[in-house]
From TrEMBL:
Functional pathway: Cofactor biosynthesis; thiamine diphosphate biosynthesis; thiamine diphosphate from thiamine phosphate: step 1/1
Binding residues for Mg(2+) 2: D37, D71
Residue ranges the record marks as coiled coil: none
Taxonomic placement: Bacteria, Bacillati, Actinomycetota, Actinomycetes, Micrococcales
Ranges where the PurM-like N-terminal domain occurs: 19-138
Function, in words: Catalyzes the ATP-dependent phosphorylation of thiamine-monophosphate (TMP) to form thiamine-pyrophosphate (TPP), the active form of vitamin B1.
Enzyme Commission number: 2.7.4.16
UniProt protein name: Thiamine-monophosphate kinase
Length: 323
């Protein structure tokens, strides 16, 4: 769809156009980054879940802020302003909308986006709830970190949890009644409802010499594939580096009778960071190695993501137009 839309969009050229987590725009005295994201009821979130759980406006507002702030973080930037556009059915309770505003502000504050003003927005009516936020960011190093900079022999590193949001989604979607969830299960669901992108880690990674970076919005393998494609090198992930992530989710997968590995490898919406660093670099706090970047094999033309030495297929992770 993007390949059809983008050639038809003609305006002044940005400093950095589509293809990364945010675009970079020239401004007098420098440049800034900008991103936009939409959450639509029954597509990106649900108000009523099979488990009996009800999503609050606070949760939806939090998630909208978190996913936009995460895209700014992924560029090595910090957020400076947000504008929000809301589409609401006539039946939406006013209190739900107040909670949405409170959730958005709470995420900005509690995730530590202390320079981010909430500068305005738009309000309209529609058949379902839809929230769109655009966020701008400033680049402390003056230079964004792109998806395309990974080099052979770089360390592949991750900051933040893997698979928690997907495990939480599985619980919300299950028939295990929300009223009976254990404290651990409720905690995992909290990770899905209110993801916590590590907002200082993006600028820190930029200062530490990250060669490529993106946020983990659609799962480690799918996002790793995007980084591999953009960089023209293979991104190789090792299972041994993910044992703690797998173990953390085992109580949930045991309760639901499934395998936790697909959550860790392909679960979206955790909004941690995937970054690469030169082999000799000291990883900044919060980053842990999960693999290495390798040059394409002789005769290999398409960069791939590998898991334990096996090339992964194209249908991995979460796709917005699937299903
Ligand atoms: Mg992103």
């Amino acid at each position: 769809m993007l390949a059809r839309i983008l050639p038809r969009l003609r305006g002044a050229a940005p400093l950095l156009g589509p293809g990364d987590d945010a675009a970079m725009i020239a401004a007098p005295g420098g440049a800034f980054v900008i991103t936009v994201d939409t959450l639509v009821e029954n597509q990106d979130f649900r108000l009523h879940w099979p488990s009996g759980f009800e999503s609050s406006g606070f949760d939806v507002g939090w998630k909208s802020a978190a996913q936009n702030l995460s895209d700014i973080n992924a560029m090595g930037a910090y957020a400076t302003a947000a504008v929000i556009s809301l589409t609401l059915p006539h039946s939406t309770p006013v209190r739900w909308v107040e909670e949405l505003a409170e959730g958005f502000s709470a995420a900005v504050r509690e995730l530590g986006a202390l320079d981010c003003s909430i500068a305005g927005g738009d309000l309209g009516r529609g058949s379902e709830v839809s929230i769109t936020a655009a966020v701008t960011g400033a680049l402390p190093t003056g230079k964004p970190i792109l998806r395309s900079g990974a080099k052979p022999s770089d360390i592949v590193a991750v900051n933040g949890v893997l698979g928690v949001a997907a495990a939480g989604l599985a619980l919300l979607d299950s028939t295990l009644p929300a009223a009976d969830w254990t404290e651990a299960e409720a905690g995992i669901v909290q990770g899905q409802r209110r993801p916590k992108p590590p907002l200082h880690a993006g600028p820190e990674a930029a200062r530490a010499g990250a060669t490529a970076m993106m946020d983990l919005s659609d799962g480690l393998l799918k996002d790793g594939q995007r980084m591999a494609t953009a960089s023209g090198a293979n991104v190789c992930i090792e299972r041994g580096a993910l044992l703690n992530d797998i173990e953390r989710l085992e109580p949930i997968s045991n309760a639901l009778g499934c395998d936790p590995l697909p959550w860790v490898l392909a679960g979206g919406e955790d909004h941690g960071l995937l970054a690469t660093f030169p082999a000799e670099a000291d990883l900044p706090p919060g980053f842990r190695p999960v693999g290495v970047v390798q040059a394409l094999e002789p005769g290999e033309s398409n960069p791939k993501v590998y898991f334990d030495g096996l090339a992964q297929g194209a249908s991995i992770g979460y796709d917005h137009f699937e299903g």
